[in-house]
Structure formats: C-alpha cells, structure tokens
Amino acid sequence: MISRNRFFFLSLTSLAYILLSPMVFLFVKDTLHLMLAWNMALGYLPFLFAYILQKKKMQKPLMAVLLGLWLLFFPNSLYILTDFIYVDAAGFIRAELYQPLVYLRGFLAYLGLFHILFGALIGVALGLSSFESVRINHFSKWNFKPKWLLTALVFLLSSLAIYIGRFLRFNSWDILNIFSIVKQFFKGIDLFTLFFILFFFALHWLLYGLAFLFVGHDHSLETFSG
Predict the structure, then answer these.
(1) How far apart are CA 151 and CA 226, in angstroms?
(2) Which of 52, 140, 189, 194 has its C-alpha lying 20 to 30 A from 9's C-alpha?
(3) Residue 94, strand partner residues
(4) Can you say whether the dihedral through the CA atoms of 160, 166, 167, 169 is positive or negative?
(5) Comparing 37-46, 204-213, 214-223, which segment has the lowest mean pLDDT?
(6) Is the overall model pTM greater than 0.85, yes or no?
(7) Bridge partners of residue 103, in order along the sequence
(8) How many angstroms separate the Cα of 56 from the Cα of each of 53, 71, 138?
(9) Domain residue limits, the chain
(10) Which of 170, 158, 148 is nearest to 196 (CA)?
(11) Alpha carbons 148 and 187: distance in angstroms, whole number
(12) 163: part of which helix (H) or strand (E)?
C-alpha cells in the first residue's frame, strides 16, 4: 500500500524535481535537463494511478481503465535510467598520452550528473511503489498461478516498452498505433534488441529484490511502498 505520507513525500519530491529542472538547464545549457522534467512527469503517472486504485469502492470499468493506464505508463518510471547514456566522460576525466588520468572537478558536469542520478532514484521509487501497491491490491487477488509469473510478465513488458521508447522513439500514447510499433519492432529486431530487453528485465528484478532486502519483509514489499 502507498501510505498518505509516502504519497505526499514522493509527490512533492517529483514536483520539486520538475520545477528545478529548468534551473539546471540554465546552468548546464543542455536541453536534456528540460526533457528530464517531462520524463519525471510521465514517471509520476503510474504512481498516481496506483494510489487512486487503492480506493476500496470503485466501479470495475473504471478500475480496468486505471489498471490499463498504470501498465501503459509504468515503464516511464524506470526509463529515466537510460538517460545515463548522455553522461560525457570528457567532462569528468582528462586523458593524455603517457600521462596519468586527471579527474576533473567541473561544477556543471557534476550538476548534470547528479540531476540525472536524482531523477533515476526518484523514478525507481515511484515505479516500485506503484508496482507493489498494484500487486498487493489487485494481482494478489487474481486467480493467476504461479503468482510470480504475473510479476515477470509486467517486468518483461516494461523492459520491452523501455527499448521501444529509447530506440524506436515511441511514447506511451503511441499505443494507438500498435500495429506500426509491432511492425517496426520486428523489422529491427536483432541480438542487441534481445540483450537490451533481457538486461532491463534482470534490472527490474534486481531493483525489486534490493528493495525487498532493505525493507526486510518476509512476503512482500509493503513497507517499501507504504
């Protein structure tokens, strides 16, 4: 469950990140940091949908719509992790032939790095909190066995969506063009595609497992998300 305190904390943290992103852009002069604000807004949506879905009295059609929207936007919460590809080593290290490496102390380079890092951490917290809320309130009540298979399916779909978003440049709402997405995906599928999807699938489990270990819960991550 997502407690009220957790909801307000992560909501305010996400809002602060979005509002501060333009200020980071003014210093760093890289439009990436404006896009990170947009990515954070998208990553917040599944958390919001999961919180609304905790309401006990809700019509089944509305519940089905919200669950669909949650699943559609869930990959956005971990998508921010892929923004580390924009980190330029030249801003942190100077390498010269036959000379030892020099580790630079650039304010702007580290400001940009920390901005991506904070966004990734907030995104992971939003995503795992929303997932565990949905798992406890909905997945655990479904007659779907084995239970872990449903978690694996969500993580696999999320990994697939992250690949599609990063390399095919589709957004969540492009699901309306599902046939075009499927066509382009299978047209460009190769060994790297499988590698990236499987890597992110494993990363989902790793992050979920780390949260499990840190909260020390025997059966679920309830204390992580509530």
Answers:
(1) 19
(2) 140
(3) 102
(4) positive
(5) 214-223
(6) yes
(7) 93
(8) 8, 20, 11
(9) 4-215
(10) 158
(11) 31
(12) helix 147-163
